[in-house]
Write a structure and sequence with these properties.
The protein is α/β, with parallel strands linked by helices. Helices cover about 55% and strands about 10% of the residues. The chain has 20 helices and 14 strands. The strands form four sheets. A five-stranded parallel β-sheet has the order 7-6-5-11-12. A four-stranded antiparallel β-sheet has the order 1-2-4-3. The longest helix has 25 residues. It is globular. The protein binds one RNA strand through helix 14, helix 15, strand 14, helix 17 and helix 19.
RNA sequence: GGCCCGGUAGCUCAAUGGAUAGAGCAACAGCCUUCUAAGCUGUAGGUUCUUGGUUCGAUCCCAAGCCGGGUCACCA
């Protein structure tokens, strides 16, 4: 489909024929012509000046003549400085459009039996507090990445590793036992994850006041932190948990079940899901066994206090602890166990971890450790790291209460969507259920697009005061364009005009040409998003397409076009633009409304 | 301090080593009797952090520096 390789070959042949010099086609630089110049593809002639020993203009002209003579799809050329602009025949773009028309999955590659399996881990929450803005970026990126990989023909398994054990959850449990009075999500109607989060906060407050008390009694800060009754109780509880104490285990199960119910609700609202969920309480012992095997095989070292270490100094890193002196697991040990279990469960070809960039070092270490333990996939694990979401005055800090809660944020967005819709009177005449559905689609479209259009690796800023805009380069703007096109198609249908199967038109005006060019790019964009691992590629492309369409829509009528052939052609183009918006947004996990 | 990542318009963000660095928001000026104004068309806004280097050509690659962030736990 893509003309670039063919152009490159022909340019190489032209150089051979004209100047008797061998040039690899891959050395020829071709790009899309910038919109302010005439043409579709542009060949850089600068690199060939040494061979032609002629001016850029003359060289470009000679190559242009050769291409015209040898490539039917090129209808004309022009040379500006050292840029050889090639004009591709209208028929070529019409052909591309006709390929797109019948294919509902335009731009997507279907998986085959030979397709590789990629497992994507994302979300990975702790069970002691609700999800916040940072998790939202993680969840949206993870889900979108999975969709992009699917669209590139991979088999994808979405997985979530729940950090359900350890000190943090014991803290919530201790506080609930002490202050809870048997309160549950059922008795007070609170969302389970929020309820547990409240006790985590209560623990921290209590712990701090105990420390302050002990400091007044003359203890050192270190002593106070060790001796505070709350932390002592927490440690005891963790030991009991490890020892399978029935009472502690039941409390743990009960409180975790509240949290999971809450998370499920948030996941559902965000529209993300998982094929397989792992729990660290199931995997951490496997990690411990693996580490002990490593000790036996001389890969890791056990110290006299029986703690186990990996020496990664040869690899340019530090020594890393794998098991504490009391034999318990640390974070990375659990990841080793989880990895082991996953590869036992699935024939994984590629493993992607969607985890914040503050853990880059962690995954470097994990990769080396898995490699040392003899897993061939250790070296190849891919850490899809993304930047933090910051507030205008810096990081979110739970201590300062500046954490933006995921549920609150979404609810706020829905309220804004509702208010804006009502003000504009867009949905008058529709049922309440329909309206609510659209508010939800628009609100999440705004939020998701806002986050996904930014290069994942960059730290991004979110201003809760200003909320998220619905105008300009936003999800709702793109959704709006989709809704408008759907409206046109409905009206065409009502007046008895059916959208034709195939596009035919005599000539193309400038805007039509531009649109067709952008339409034909979509499959390449999906591919690029897959290799660059960036949903932002898709988001920015869809925005460009919509801008171009709106500009066209402003200049040219569709339904009121007197010439039926032109009207039909434009209907087909509009329909195809709508399809790409829909397909592109589905890669971002964003829904599109039929009307808004 | 070692390692990693950023720095582009007042703000939020784009820009496979190419042509005059682009959008949106905010500001200003226009466009609703027409297929949806959540829109469209203009104006204004830039030493792409700095200095060197490579190149026909650098926001992009290399080196050094400046600023900001992350990370180097018997935390997760």
């Amino acid at each position: 489909m893509n003309l670039e390789p063919i152009i490159k070959e022909n340019v190489a042949a032209a150089i051979k024929s004209l100047y008797d010099q061998a040039v690899e086609p891959s050395q020829v630089q071709v790009q899309l012509t910038r919109s302010e110049f005439t043409g579709d593809h542009t060949v850089m002639v600068f690199p060939f000046l040494k061979m032609s020993k002629k001016s850029p203009e003359v060289t470009g002209g000679e190559i242009g003549e050769y291409l015209i003579a040898n490539m039917k799809v090129i209808s004309s050329y022009n040379v500006v400085k050292g840029f050889l602009n090639l004009v591709i025949d209208n028929g070529y773009w019409i052909d591309r459009l006709n390929e797109a028309i019948p294919n509902e999955q335009y731009g997507f590659v279907a998986p085959t039996d030979q397709s590789e399996l990629v497992m994507i881990e994302y979300s990975s929450p702790n069970t002691n507090k609700p999800l916040h803005l940072g998790h939202i970026r993680n969840n949206l990126l993870g889900f979108s990445l999975a969709e992009v990989m699917k669209a590139n023909g991979y088999k994808v398994v979405k997985t979530n590793i729940v950090n359900d054990r350890g000190v943090h959850i014991c803290k919530s449990m201790v506080a609930w036992q002490r202050f809870g009075n048997g309160e549950t999500p059922e008795t007070n109607g609170k969302k389970g994850d929020h309820l547990v989060g409240e006790y985590y906060v209560k623990f921290d407050q209590q712990y701090k006041s105990e420390i302050a008390e002990l400091l007044e009694k003359g203890r050192s800060e270190e002593q106070a932190k060790e001796e505070a009754p709350s932390i002592v109780a927490t440690r005891e509880m963790l030991l009991k948990w490890e020892a399978n104490d029935p009472e502690v285990r039941n409390l743990w199960k009960m409180m975790n079940s509240w949290v999971y119910a809450g998370f499920d609700e948030t996941y559902k609202t965000l529209g993300v899901d998982f094929d397989k969920i792992y729990y660290e309480s199931d995997t951490y012992t496997i990690g411990r066994d693996e580490v002990l095997r490593g000790v036996k095989e001389g890969i890791f070292q056990q110290e006299s206090d029986s703690s186990v270490w990996a020496n990664l100094e040869k690899e340019g890193l530090d020594k890393k602890i794998l098991l504490r002196s009391d034999g318990t697991s640390v974070y990375i040990t659990q990841d080793i166990g989880t990895a082991q279990l996953r590869y036992r469960d699935y024939p994984i070809d590629h493993m992607i971890y969607v985890v914040g960039n503050e853990q880059i070092y962690h995954f470097q270490v994990l990769s080396l450790l898995l490699d040392k333990l003899g897993y061939k996939w250790g070296k190849d694990l891919y850490h899809f790291s993304y930047g933090m979401v910051e507030l205008p005055n810096g990081r979110m800090k739970s201590r300062e209460g500046t954490v933006v809660d995921a549920d609150d944020l979404v609810a706020g967005m829905v309220d804004v969507a509702k208010a804006v819709s009502m003000e504009l009177g867009k949905l008058d005449g529709y049922s309440e259920a329909e309206k609510e559905n659209i508010y939800h689609i628009v609100a999440l479209g705004a939020l998701k697009y806002f986050i996904l259009k930014v290069d994942p690796k960059k730290t991004m800023t979110f201003n809760p005061e200003e909320s998220i805009d619905f105008n300009g380069n936003t999800g709702p703007f793109i959704q709006y364009t989709y809704a408008r096109i759907r409206s046109i198609l409905r009206k065409a249908d009502e007046t008895g005009v059916s959208v034709p199967q195939f596009a035919q038109v005599g000539t193309l005006n400038e805007k039509e040409r531009s649109l067709l060019k952008i339409i034909s790019l979509f499959p390449d964009v999906v591919k690029e998003a897959g290799t660059a691992h960036s949903p932002a590629v898709v988001a920015n492309y869809v925005y460009d397409l919509v801008k171009e369409f709106n500009s066209f829509y402003h200049d040219h009528s569709i339904l009121n076009e007197p010439d039926n052939a032109i009207r039909d052609f434009r209907l087909v183009v509009a329909q195809t633009v709508a399809k790409i918006i829909k397909n592109g947004f589905s890669l971002l996990g964003i829904r599109v409304p039929e009307r808004m």
